[in-house]
Design a protein that fits this description.
The protein is of the alpha/beta class. The protein has a single domain, classed as Glutaredoxin (3-Layer(aba) Sandwich). It is about 35% helix and about 20% strand. The protein is built from 5 helices and 5 strands. It has helices spanning about 10-15, 30-35, 55-70, 85-90, 120-130, and strands at about 20-25, 40-45, 75-80, 100-105, 105-115. It has a 5-stranded mixed beta sheet, sandwiched between helices. Helix 3 links the parallel strand 2 (about 40-45) and strand 3. The longest helix is centred in the middle third of the chain and has 18 residues, at about 55-70. It starts with 9 loop residues before the first helix and ends in a 22-residue tail after the last helix. About 30% of the residues are buried.
Length: about 150
């Protein structure tokens, strides 16, 4: 991980210090994914001043993990380094802050954007944990055929 230059919000730092999350940025993403087994969730918090929901997600995420683990659906945690979150969001096509990125056995699964009511959050996280792995969304540039508008 590159050295953190921005002040890290206390609630994000607590995910690492108290809940054994790992810091992830674009530089160490591949190394982090390579050693992960099972379900993993990466929090892209963004700037909590601009997106105050990010801190709400940071508070709720350990509780979601505890409920899921009690039901036999454990997942590991990671937090995007604040100054690296934008690059990770672009890589995975995430356009809303905050977002939870789900991975299984080093493969992308899905993205769950925003903050949700508790019961909705539990259902959405369980859906994400059940979803198959797949290709991460692109950067949103539509592909256009060079023959568009012509008849064959």
């Amino acid at each position: 991980m590159s050295e953190t230059k921005l002040a890290v919000p206390v609630l994000l730092a607590q995910l690492v210090s108290k809940h054994h999350a790992q810091w992830v940025d674009l530089e160490n993403l591949d190394a982090w994914l390579t050693v992960q087994r099972g379900n993993q969730v990466l929090l892209l918090a963004g700037d909590p001043v601009r997106y105050p929901e990010a801190l709400d997600v940071a508070v709720v995420l350990p509780e979601l993990r505890q409920v899921c683990a009690a039901a036999g659906r454990a997942f590991g945690l990671a937090v995007a380094v604040p100054e690296g979150a934008e690059a990770l969001a672009k890589k995975f096509g995430s356009q809303r802050w905050p977002s939870l990125l789900f991975f299984r056995d080093s493969q992308y699964v899905t993205t769950l954007p925003g903050m949700h009511d508790w019961s909705d959050y539990i259902a959405l996280v369980n859906q994400a944990l059940d979803a198959p792995t797949g290709r991460a969304p692109g950067i949103g540039i539509p592909l256009v055929s060079s023959t568009a508008g012509t008849c064959h």
